Amino acid sequence: MPSTFNGLPLHPLVVHAVVVLVPLAVVWLLVLTFVPRWRDRYAGLGALVALVALVLTPLASETGESLQAQIGPVGEHAELGDQLKYFVFPVAVLAVALWWVTRRARSGPALARPLALTLAVLSVVASLATGWQVYRVGDSGARAVWQHSTSQLSSVGKG
Known about the structure:
Elements: E1 4-5, E2 8-9, H1 10-34, H2 39-71, H3 76-107, H4 113-156
Antiparallel strand pairs: 1-2
Helix pairs in contact: 1-2, 1-3, 1-4, 2-3, 3-4
């Protein structure tokens, strides 16, 4: 996989897609969990967004490793970023499950109440955990960039 696009590091480009799509998938899953009347119309699109986020998340890690090889260690950010795929995976699975359950309910009997409740609880837990992890990854990445930038700025006048 290339590490640059048009002369710029690919990591920030991929990360911005992840930063938009993962929270969007999380919010979508939460909304569809609590607003059943929207499921028929939006569950398929929510599942698609979650699946695209799932595919892009490991790409963000890979491009981050390439960038880290060029600029040096970024501390906790790399570790947290690598963990994000384990948070996005359940969101994607649950979004697809919600879409499947919605399609099944159209053509046959609805899901048993305990199973529907379990799906809802898991969706809330996975969404909240994933949202928190996205925050942690983003915060550590911003701190790594800021610290790297400020250390370069402070060394400019000394050379």
